[in-house]
Design brief:
This protein is of the alpha+beta class and 497 residues long. It has three domains: 84 residues, CD59; 100 residues, Phosphorylase Kinase, domain 1, CATH 3.30.200.20; 207 residues, Transferase(Phosphotransferase), domain 1 (Orthogonal Bundle). It is 39% helix and 17% strand. The longest helix has 27 residues.
Length: 497
């Protein structure tokens, strides 16, 4: 029995190596660069040359499959010097990359219209060997019904379960899939599922613009999603934000829900997509500019933001633990309002992670900096020790204090008009010198209206603000302490969420 199995395995190995050697022999050519099959109009004789990879891609457009064949130059590969991250075999079945002449032409059978008999011959030989092996295996199985029955269970049960999984994926919502694959607390969907979702999304309308690119509302099987489209020069920011969102154990009800990251070739340039949950109320900045709130909503919003920040700052120890993360750009424009008026923290492109084992800080390579208006004094005067992690957390707490001030101004019977922090001291788009003068030299902070002192909720929250924006970073509250203080305000006898 064991001898027979070894013979069959040797036959398989021989056929595989024979096909590989013949393919290399017929395609080897030292006189030119890597030649690839190309179906672009700009390619002469359906051929392009590159110093990188050939690729074949399949995408869904209006319910129809579209096949693309082209060259991928080495200078466009990310990360540099390696196979493109979205072409690694274990991560995708939609994009196929290879590095021998015309190797991408044979990836999809229907596209191989110009194959010659010599190109087909290795495959015929391989199939013949496999056919002989299959016939011998069938003959042996018939002689041993018990063996056949046992092997049937092992061979077909996984296939059945795979079909069931595929069926459930076709009918599930995004939330169902996230709960199925991550138990609600993991790092997001598997990369294969991410790419599948991204290629089925239809962009509906644009809902925002920023220095990174645009944000669109998209539709996926009747569900709204937010699609953040990065420009090609912001590739590092896109990669970093996707990487942070997929940190293990990051998923939380007060952190913007990550769905997928993908790249989309629109024919002229490559779009970099980051797909997240969609919240129709938009950013906290837009919400406060259009609406006033009551004390109940004030505490609900403040507590949810503090809870999200405390989760970011917390490190969870374990084999699949979560590192502590600092946001570095916390502001009302980077906080979204959910339908129940609680908030989620988004835009993690500038976030830093704490490496506990080496006590070092993982800082992104992007040249972007935080928003000047929300920068802490130690960041403005460059006195912060960027090699330690705690200063980053304390800087986030300072920014949180300013956000709480923005929310509180819109609360009460006679709310104030919405204004950003330090609106009375600096221009609408302040320079670093403006903020440094006001915050570091003059040591000014946002003004607390007199009416807050007579309101128990506003008075309590104003005390929290003051403890967030101390000039001395070490004197500021931690995010966890702020969360507990706000939770106590929410549970007093005369005030219930």
């Amino acid at each position: 029995m064991f001898f027979f199995k070894n013979v069959v395995m040797d036959a398989f190995r021989c056929s595989k190596y024979l096909i590989l050697i013949l393919s290399i022999f017929w395609r080897l050519d030292f006189a030119h660069g890597l030649r690839c099959y190309c179906n672009f109009e700009s390619c002469p004789n359906s051929t392009c040359e590159t110093d990188g990879y050939c690729y074949a891609a399949t995408a869904l457009e209006n319910g129809l499959k579209k096949h693309t064949y082209h060259c991928w130059d080495r200078e466009k590969i990310f990360p540099p010097g390696d196979k493109p991250i979205w072409c690694r075999k274990e991560e995708s079945v939609d994009i196929y990359c290879c590095a021998t002449d015309y190797c991408n032409r044979d990836y999809l059978p229907e596209s191989n219209t110009s194959a010659t008999a010599w190109q087909v011959l290795p495959w015929i030989m391989g199939l013949m060997v496999l056919g002989v092996c299959a016939a011998i295996s069938l003959w042996w199985a018939r002689r041993s019904p018990k063996v056949l029955k046992r092997e049937s269970r092992s061979l077909f049960a996984p296939e059945d379960s795979c079909c069931e999984t595929r069926h459930s994926m076709m009918t599930a919502t995004i939330r169902d899939m996230i709960e199925l694959t991550t138990s609600g607390s993991g790092s997001g969907l598997p990369l294969l599922v991410q790419r599948s979702i991204a290629r089925q999304i239809q962009l509906v309308d644009i809902i925002g613009k920023g220095r990174f690119g645009e944000v669109w509302r998209g539709r996926w099987r009747g569900e709204n999603v937010a699609v953040k489209i990065f420009s090609s020069r912001e590739e590092c920011s896109w990669f970093r934000e996707a990487e942070i969102y997929q940190t293990v154990m990051l998923r939380h009800e007060n952190i913007l829900g990550f769905i997928a990251a993908d790249n989309k070739d629109n024919g002229t340039w490559t779009q970099l997509w980051l797909i997240t949950d969609y919240h129709e109320n938009g950013s906290l900045f837009d919400f406060l500019g259009a609406r006033t709130i009551d004390a109940n909503t004030l505490v609900k919003m403040a507590l949810s933001i503090a809870t999200g920040l405390a989760h970011l700052h917390m490190d969870i120890v374990g084999t699949k633990g979560k590192p502590a993360i600092a946001h570095r750009d916390l502001k009302s424009k980077n906080i979204l309002v959910k339908s129940n008026l609680t908030c989620v923290i988004g835009d993690l492109g500038l976030a830093v992670r704490h490496n506990v084992s080496s006590d070092s800080v993982d800082v992104p390579s992007t040249n972007r900096v935080g928003t000047k208006r929300y920068m802490a004094p130690e960041v403005l005067d460059e006195s912060m020790d960027s090699r330690q992690f705690d200063p980053y957390k304390r800087s986030d707490v300072y920014s949180l204090g300013l956000v709480l001030w923005e929310i509180a101004r819109r609360c009460g019977a006679m709310p104030d008009e919405y204004q950003p922090p330090y609106y009375e001291c600096v221009p609408p788009d302040p320079a670093l010198e403006d903020m440094r003068r006001v915050v570091c030299i003059e040591r000014r902070r946002p003004v607390l209206p007199n009416r807050w002192h007579s309101d128990p909720v506003l008075s309590a929250i104003s005390k929290v603000m003051k403890e967030c924006w101390y000039q001395n970073p070490a004197a500021r509250l931690t995010a966890l302490r702020i969360k507990k203080t706000l939770a106590n305000i929410a549970t007093v006898d005369h005030f219930k969420l």
